[in-house]
Design brief:
By secondary structure, the protein is an all-alpha fold. The protein has two domains: 55 residues, no CATH class; 46 residues, no CATH class. The chain is 75% helix and 0% strand. It is built from five helices and no strands. α2 crosses α3. The longest helix has 26 residues. It is elongated, with a radius of gyration of 27 Å.
Amino acid sequence: MTLLPDRPQRLSATALSLGLLAVIAVGFVLKAAQGVVIPLLIAWFLSYLLAPPVNFLVRRLRLPAFLAVACVVLLLLLVRRSLRGRYEHPEPPVPHDVVLFRTALVVCLLLGPAFVVGIRPAERALTALQTQTMERQP
């Protein structure tokens, strides 16, 4: 029996850079294709959500599949129509919230690779602060 070689404990800079570039590239592709991706995701979610009632109509009531799908979609549209106007639209985000979100996103993107590699910035900062405090004490 052959043993697998030990995995390296730390990622190389090349692997980390390629991983980060891949994440950024996927983000740009999804942003560019959001006009196609978002409707497909909504369709997938609805099909996943409506599969149990359709299966019930097909298996228990012996309806043809196209008729079961049509009934469930029609029922969904009727429920949606009856809810029209009964909910309030949320207020648009305050610009301060947008700035805070973008700042948090940038911080996460900058600190994320440090956690993957194993550097813990908070521990280092606390250690440095403790040593500074101990040096000041007489």
